[in-house]
Specification:
mainly alpha; Growth Hormone, Chain: A; 0% strand; globular
């Protein structure tokens, strides 16, 4: 199990660096291309559409080729997305969003398939949470190193360095293909109907349906947070290096919190109640972000965004472990992909709504409040479903 956890941790770290770099470097890109900040939300909306398609269709490919092989392909795709971004302009970033987040979105379902087979069920929330700390770790690396590298290499050079990192790690995973990919079914037939089957599988099951709606709200707010954090701080008067440093410091909070929520959900409190608490926490802190202005101190901004990071950036392990628990053992990747596809719908709709509100009002406040509403509704829904049993110690 340890080898699987480490491999998936490093795989997700590389991929998350690539996904966050366009947001971290957005002020530089916007300045060069003379674009409106609202286009950041459009870019992340395109990323979400590509990821939605990739995750809906991921199940059959994981069954046929194995989790490690699909992880390699995901890393190659992520690197390709960053590489084509250097073209610049609308064409470059449309290609970047689609290439870098379509096939690359298979990474998380592949990781879930592998851990679903190798992790002890009782410790699954904890194991999934440890692996999922890779995402804030990658975002932290991107937020801290991205602006610094961009000062010497430019934003294009920084994107190419990150692309090379993804491609190198894809090669390093090759020895694990034969060792961990022990369950591929090369004769498995991949059909277009798999997209419909994946969605249906998570909607007909009551608990999976609740997880899907939670993923929609949580991932949507997370996407807005990542997409606009640095740009928002620059609008408040921060320079890009200081904004990137604060972004990295805040994201660092999510690393221990993901492990903490997984440990709590494994041994002390039912996962559904943990997720409900996270929903309310992220909604309140996101709404408070809308009140930021130049009078707020860096410490105050850091405290509020730290709470948002501890919630909106820290739910993944416990939600994915619940999805894996409810899935048939040979369909973990497909079911996880179905749940995550709703998260990608949120990642498309929330940044798009945020961008529209920013364009119409000229202010950030309305977007933060509106994007917090789905999390409130999910928190209430999870509480209304009754008090579940506390996990066995």
């Amino acid at each position: 199990m340890l080898i699987a956890v480490v491999a998936m941790f490093l795989q997700q770290t590389c991929g998350s660096v690539g996904r966050v770099l366009p947001a971290v470097l957005a002020p530089l890109i916007i300045h060069e291309l003379r674009a409106d900040p609202s286009w950041v939300g459009v870019y992340f909306g395109l990323m979400a559409i590509a990821a939605l398609v990739g995750q809906l269709g991921s199940g059959g490919f994981i069954i046929r080729h194995g989790a490690i092989r699909m992880s390699q392909i995901a890393l190659l795709s992520a690197g390709g997305g960053m590489a084509v971004a250097i073209i610049g302009g609308a064409a470059g970033f449309v290609l970047s969003a689609l290439v870098g987040n379509g096939i690359a979105a298979v990474a998380t379902p592949a990781s879930s398939q592998l851990l679903g087979r190798w992790a002890v069920r009782r410790y699954a929330p904890f194991a999934f949470s440890v692996t999922q700390t890779a995402i804030p770790a990658g975002i932290l690396l991107g937020g801290s190193l991205g602006p610094t590298l961009a000062q010497s290499l430019g934003w294009r050079g920084t994107m190419l360095v990150s692309a090379g990192m993804c491609w190198c790690f894809a090669l390093l995973l090759q020895p694990l293909h034969g060792r961990l990919d022990t369950d591929p079914v090369p004769t498995h037939v991949i059909r277009l109907s798999d997209f419909r089957t994946t969605i249906t599988a998570v909607l007909v099951e009551r608990e999976l349906r609740a997880l899907s709606f939670a993923c929609f709200a949580f991932n949507g707010l997370q996407a807005v947070f990542i997409a606009y954090f640095v740009t928002y701080l620059v609008a408040l008067g921060y320079d890009i290096v200081a904004a990137g440093a604060l972004f990295s410091a805040v994201i660092a909070v999510a690393i221990p919190c993901r492990i903490l929520w997984g440990w709590v959900g494994s041994f002390h409190i039912a996962p559904r109640l943990v997720m409900s608490g996270l929903a309310f926490g992220m909604a309140v802190s996101a709404a408070l972000m809308g009140a930021f202005n130049e009078a707020w101190s860096t410490v105050a901004i850091g405290l509020v965004t730290g709470v948002l990071s501890a919630t909106a950036m820290s739910w993944h392990g416990i939600l994915l472990s619940e999805a894996a628990r409810l899935a048939p053992i040979n369909r973990v990747g497909a079911v996880t992909g179905g749940v995550l596809s709703f998260g990608q719908m949120g990642a498309f709709l929330c940044p798009t709504a945020f961008a529209l509100l920013l364009r119409v009002t000229g202010f950030y406040a309305a977007g933060w409040v509106v994007c917090a509403i789905p999390a409130v509704l999910v928190g209430i829904d999870l509480l209304r479903r009754g008090k579940p049993e506390i996990p066995a110690r």
